[in-house]
Prior knowledge:
The chain is an alpha/beta fold. Helices cover 47% and strands 6% of the residues.
Amino acid sequence: MEIRSEAVVSSKYDKLPPSMLPRTRIQMWFVCVSSCILIWTCLVQLVANGQFWSPRLLRRWNTAFGFSESGHLTKVKYFSLRSELAIPAPSPQLPSRVYKSNGYLKVSCNGGLNQMRAAICDMVTVARLLNLTLVVPVLDKTSFWADHSDFADIFDVRHFIDSLRDEVHIVKRLPKRFSREGSFVMPPVSWSNETYYLQQILPLFSKYKVIHFNKTDARLANNGLSAELQKLRCHVNYHALRFTSQIEALGNKLVQILQEKGSFIALHLRYEMDMLAFSGCTEGCSEEEAEELKKMRYAYPWWREKEIVSEEKRLQGLCPLTPEESALVLQAFSYGKDTLIYIASGEIYGRERRLMALRTAFPLTVKKETLLDPKDLIHFQNHSSQMAALDYVVSIGSDTFIPTYDGNMAKVVEGHRRYLGYKKSVLLDRRKLVELLDLHKNGTMTWDEFVIAVQEAHRNRMGQPSCRKVVVDKPKEEDYFYANPYECLCRAAACRAGIL
């Protein structure tokens, strides 16, 4: 009866002119339309702010509905050759952390690319600890490398700011009202802990609204920091510091070219002019070359150690392996002539003449300059940090990473590969290797004995899980945080308990 009654009523109203429709029916239509609009608006807002409400669930909605980082629709899909080299799919913008800023922190990084990379991570952590507003760091333009690249020439600035908005406020430039007033310039004390920054640095912001750290290398302790701060250092290093799309694209292209040829080794052959000059290592150099390196060392007044005995440093394991020594060590690890080797370095001192032994032993030795068309590198020429960034991408994507010296790049790449699942990194014991190489060269040790000794010495030096060595009051002698950030890895509890 109810259905029949509704049909009668319906047909009765259908015969009436539109102007005479009952007000209740018009109101019903209005409510339905308004409800649909309201529901759709709420859905869009939830998806756009999904990270705040339910990251995992709403991130799937974002993908399904095609929303970008800013909440706008997009059809772009991200992919790459390997997950570790992938440009991550944009995620909903993080909610900004709410806090009263105690002032602005300006930082001028010093050193090469990877020294500056670690420093940026440290300065973000300091800004978070002290509730400061960080100005996008300024990169070194006065060092030996004379690279005038800005932060935005190497790193994705927008991603850097957005991915850290839930931790610290970051601005591209200092507001004009503070620029006119100037800032208090100082270098923080090296290897400092939370107490130093809270008790010595934070009170300065009651007098100065802007403090400028003019040196940032190793200004935060390796150990003794809270787990939260250590994890923030990792978050900055492995997630917030993304290279520009141009660097990522060309770096991924290099990896693709190499992978099409098979598995490959990234050999960080640190036999470069700056390293030899400042370390005082002249093994394999002629007298003229040794003198040239010495003059260069004296030409830089900020380099304090002038008179250096090369042989003493070499025996202590403080010199990079030469290309000739590197070839012998690789052969001792049973790598054959069919091994594909990518030289992840700048210009080798002595150029091709010094690479002859390596190329003879390993004919498939390549560099970015031989793999790419010259026009691909034209925008990177004379920008050593951008070229180093390409080598960084390839080193992360390699099957095996072997550094011949434990400088900043070697350490930072080692830590990054640990973070990506303990990818194989052969950490050479140069002091032991120099001893073995000399024994083999003077005929005291046969080749077979040399091979066995080299492999045995490195059985536990393949980037396996381990804890950092801590040396109280001697931070330079302990293990570098960025080479083994175990607090960010699954083995942290074992290290804290002294099990590993």
